[in-house]
Structure formats: C-alpha cells, structure tokens
Please model this.
Amino acid sequence: MTGDHYFTAEPTAAAAPREVEFTAAGREWTLASAANVFSADRLDAGTAVLLRKARLPHAATTGALLDLGCGFGPITCVLAVSAPAGTVWAVDVNERARDLTTANAARVGVADRVRVHAPDDVPQDVTFTQIWSNPPIRIGKTELHDLLRRWLPRLAPDGVGWLVVARHLGGDSLHRWLVDQGWQVERHASQKGYRVLRITR
Model:
C-alpha cells in the first residue's frame, strides 16, 4: 500500500480539518477530525456498534482504561466522560490522530484524565481495567495478531476487553483465535454485520 493511510505514523497530506457529529452514551458529540485518520468523515459503523452494545464504564469505574487505535478519539472521549474516576490511555501510531484526540479530550473537558501516546511510549508497568478497540483489521492478520498479543496481556486480572470486528472481515475467526490464545471470549452482541467480543482472562 502506498501513500498516507490511517496507520501512517506521520501523514504528509493536508489535514483538511472537519468535524464529526454522532450520538453515543445518551448525548450528542461534535469532535474534530482530519484527513488520513481512521474514519475521518463520520463515526465508523463498527465503533458506533461498540459504543451502543458494549457495557460502557460508569461513575464507579476506576483505574486505567485503554483505547487501542484511538483515531480522532471518539471512544476515548466517551470512556472518559462515562468514567469520571478513571484515566483513559489513548494509543495510536498516527501522530495526527493523537493530536486530534488530545484536542478533542480538551474540547469535552476531560484532558486531565486522558493520556495520549504512541504505542512505544506507554510505560510498561501500566495495566488496564478495561481495553476498548475497533482494531485495525486492514493492517493484516499477522500484524493484528501481534498487536493483540502485545496489549491484551496488559489487562488486569479482573479486567475486561471489548473488541468490535466486522463478520466479513474475520470477526468469527478472530474470536476462535483469541480462544486458542487462552482468552475467555463471549460474543456479547451482533449488529449490522459486526461482532462485539467481550474478553476476560
């Protein structure tokens, strides 16, 4: 693949700023976006299903939550607003996406509880009570498996992971692979061709 794409570390194409409006967690959101980040023009359908069908954190949720592959930050912002006692770590390889997530966290008033980092900059001793991801399927199966092998083991012993994957992009085979890796996996919901997977130890 040539040219900039959403998993380019440093996109060179013009940012072409825009805004994305969506509804999640019982409220309306307007977040900044730009070219060459994931789903730059709208809330991705899979992300929408994840935020609608998974069990969002709540006022009593504490600890560190991970948004893996944060894009411009919709999951990060929803998690941080929903869990005012928690801290959200937003991770993406794309520098433009990280900058947008930082700006959007400030926009919705949660910048003090959001940590935005490139993957290699997250301290090794941080573990997560929740991991949320609409994972980057299009990086390829091997790379996707490597990504999940890297981050899922950082789930706290009593933590929970939430993934959304399109069925036609391998949602069911990923479910089986996760089970083969020793994870407890439940198909929590299915909607619009997407699988929402709940993962525990």
About this structure: Residues 73 and 153 are 23 Å apart (CA to CA). The radius of gyration is 16 Å. Strands lie at 18-24, 27-33, 63-68, 86-91, 114-117, 128-133, 155-166, 184-191, 194-200. DSSP finds five helices and nine strands in the chain.
